[in-house]
Specification:
Layout lengths: L2 E4 L5 H14 L10 H9 L6 E6 L3 E12 L4 E11 L8 H15 L5 E3 L6 H9 L15 H9 L2
Parallel strand pairs: 4-5
Antiparallel strand pairs: 1-2, 2-3, 3-4
Length: about 160
């Protein structure tokens, strides 16, 4: 039986392991810079930036990490899913669906106007799964990002 529960500080090593496994799956195994201290501060510090849910069958088998964003068009906040990961051994058991349903319920309970996330365009299995859950692709939008040196250079232009 799969149980979902809010993450606690003791889950941080597991969350970081899942983040690294997800990065490897997404063909970016060396891209994770976060440390346990970073995640502890972000999830459980004085001003948490995000929240996480752990899926467990006695041992953790997956997680979802999320935070709030805001829509000026709706005038309400939304829920943004940053990461959803289910271990290979637990896939096909409905864990991903349970996590998505749980976050959708959180979004409704908190008065969110929407629940959204990004998915890599080559991940056809995930896209099909999300479509089956009722997600609609935002094909007219592309993600834009400034980070690292480019972020510092942009900030210096002020």
């Amino acid at each position: 039986m799969i149980i979902l529960r809010p993450a606690v500080a003791a889950d941080v090593p597991t969350i970081l392991r899942f983040v690294r496994e997800l990065a490897a799956f997404e063909r970016e195994p060396d891209a994770v810079e976060a440390s346990e201290a970073d995640l502890t501060a972000a999830l459980f510090g004085s001003s948490p930036a995000a929240e996480a849910v752990i899926a467990s069958d006695g041992e953790p088998v997956g997680f979802a990490l999320f935070f709030h964003n805001f829509s000026t068009w709706s005038g309400r906040r939304g829920l943004y899913l940053e990461d959803l990961y289910v271990t290979p051994a637990a896939r096909g058991r409905g864990v991903g669906k349970m996590l998505l349903q749980h976050l959708a319920a959180i979004a409704l309970d908190r008065g969110c106007a929407r629940f959204e996330w990004s998915v890599l365009d080559w991940n056809a299995d995930a896209i099909a799964f999300y479509r089956a859950m009722g997600a609609v692709g935002q094909d007219d939008w592309t993600v834009q990002r400034v980070s690292g040196d480019a972020l510092r250079q942009l900030a210096e232009r002020v």
